[in-house]
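Marked as duplicate of an earlier ticket. Keeping the data here for the record.
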Amino acid sequence: MLHQNNIYSNFKLLRQLLEDGGVFTAFDTETTGLHPEINNVIEIGAVKFDIDGILDRFEVLINPLCPIPYEASSVNHITDQMVADCPSIDKVLPDFMNFIGSSILVAHNANFDLNFINAELERHKMPLISNKTVDTLNLARWAYPILGKYSLQFLAQKFQINVENAHRADDDARVCMDFFIKCVSGEKPKF
């Protein structure tokens, strides 16, 4: 299930949309695994922003109603105990969809996060995300072909973006937003 509303390659359009007051939402998910058909979302973090800065934030831990595999916890540090009293995804999705509204979505390796959210929406018979989307992984590869590496943490280092809690959805969403703004503003990486 690939998301087809990607507009990353139109660099001038992105800058113009930002300068004209466009509203964007950088978001990230943490999951129980790598396969949206069989794994679940356990955290969503999102930052809604425009050219003037952050407009709103969305952060929620989600009870997947199954044990979180050790491999997932070792990356995102989310444990079964942390999500035990959290809402299930069917309670979270309507709030997340309301939060993003018609904003342009921004995510690093966007298809991963979109495929997970859409798989959860589909399982709960809710409409899929149809927002225009900017994939900062593809944007970085296009804008900075000489870098050779494009993980979000590597880009944060090269663009001097403060990382407070890597592999947690809220902080990764903020870092993604910061990179997107620096990228469309034409900032160069630091070597």
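See parent ticket for discussion. The chain has a mean pLDDT of 93.
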